[in-house]
Amino acid sequence: MTSNNQIRIGIIGAGFARTTQIPGFRNCKDARIVAIASAHRERAEEVAREFTIDHVEDDGRPSVLRENFNLVITGRPSLPTAR
């Protein structure tokens, strides 16, 4: 697989992602986590520093709309819908 086939991942929620999802995705050769969002921005920033994630948001919607993701993972029970 070349870098053109890289799987770009956005994650919403920093708790379960930090302990389980991010470590798992880091073991996937062509997966790259490019953004993390959390309602508690300071937690997202901490996780981003720990795992070298470029983009941090306190709301997942802007990130989901802006980035060209192949996969978005949410640990939150639900995301508010845009109206």
What would a concise description of this structure say?
The chain has 83 residues and is α/β, with parallel strands linked by helices. It contains three helices and four strands.
Mean pLDDT: 82
Instruction: Tell me, briefly, the overall form.
Output: globular
User: Can you list the strand order of the major beta sheet?
Assistant: 3-2-1-4
Biggest sheet architecture: 4 strands, parallel
In terms of DSSP E residues, the strand content is: 15-25%
- Total number of β-strand segments? 4
The termini sit apart by 38 Å
Low-confidence stretches: none
Q: Topology as H/E string?
A: EHEHEHE
Radius of gyration: 12 Å
| Share of helical residues | 25-40%
SS-derived structural category = alpha/beta
Number of helices: 3
